[in-house]
Design brief:
The protein is of the alpha+beta class and 218 residues long. It is built from four helices and 13 strands. The protein has helices at 12-21, 82-90, 135-138, 165-173, and strands spanning 2-3, 9-10, 59-67, 73-78, 97-101, 106-110, 119-129, 140-142, 149-152, 156-161, 180-184, 195-199, 206-216. Pfam families: PAN_1.
């Protein structure tokens, strides 16, 4: 639609007259003069792996000479800096506290009710997460809160290996019968690290140090 300077609609004939009056205007085009070569059916918008919400990646000090206790511990690994330890905790479902010791770069993450459950240990600094990743951004969560810690599932479809927890998750997600999976965490005994168990149900869950069991979020 063509409009004049006051916003009023003009017919094609009126536009021709206006174009003739304007020395700098040699021609004009209408919608019928334009050829749209892409006549295919519109494609769906691309999917994104971006988080469903913004995270400020924040944490606060929870004290010195304190560390994650054995109870509630999610991982124990080596991370050079506090920031790297924090990132490891952020990317671990359920992790809300982490502790780091600079002397040997030991990094421990845990799920605790509050900081009163931290245990005394010289050289460790403790931190509480104030920005925690939503389970929907993982696509999975720890079985029944923290009930999946140091547990493995036994109603198995398959037992294989996966370099990362997310790869084990993808194997489960892509199997129509799989709703739970167990992964050998980085702190597991070396022969169990990266072990991936795909399961039909959470029946018969048994204790096994270094394994965590997760359930797929529909």
């Amino acid at each position: 639609e063509f409009l004049d300077e006051n916003g009023n609609a003009l017919t094609v004939d009126e536009v021709q007259i206006e174009a003739f009056r304007e020395p700098r205007c040699e021609n004009f085009v209408t919608e019928s003069d334009i050829i749209f070569r892409n006549t295919g059916i519109p494609t769906a918008a691309p999917t994104t792996t971006s988080p469903t919400k913004y995270y400020d990646m924040s944490y606060i000090s929870a004290g010195s000479n304190l560390k994650c206790p054995s109870t509630g511990r999610l991982f124990k690994t080596i991370e050079t800096s506090v920031e790297e330890c924090h990132e490891f905790c952020f990317n671990m479902p359920g992790c809300n506290f982490f502790t780091h010791r600079e002397a040997d770069t030991m990094c421990i993450g845990c799920n605790l009710t509050n900081d009163s459950y931290l245990s005394g240990s010289s050289g460790f600094n403790a931190y509480e997460m104030t920005s925690i990743k939503d389970p929907n951004d993982f696509g999975y969560k720890m079985l029944r809160g923290d009930a999946g810690m140091d547990k493995k599932c036994n109603d198995r479809i398959e037992m294989t290996t996966a370099p990362t927890r997310d790869e084990c998750y993808n194997m489960c997600k892509n199997n129509a019968d799989c709703g739970w999976y167990t992964w050998g965490e980085v702190h597991a005994a070396i022969q169990y690290r990266g072990m991936c168990m795909l399961c039909r149900s959470d029946n018969g869950i048994t204790s096994h140090s270094g394994f965590n069991t997760y359930e797929i979020i529909p």
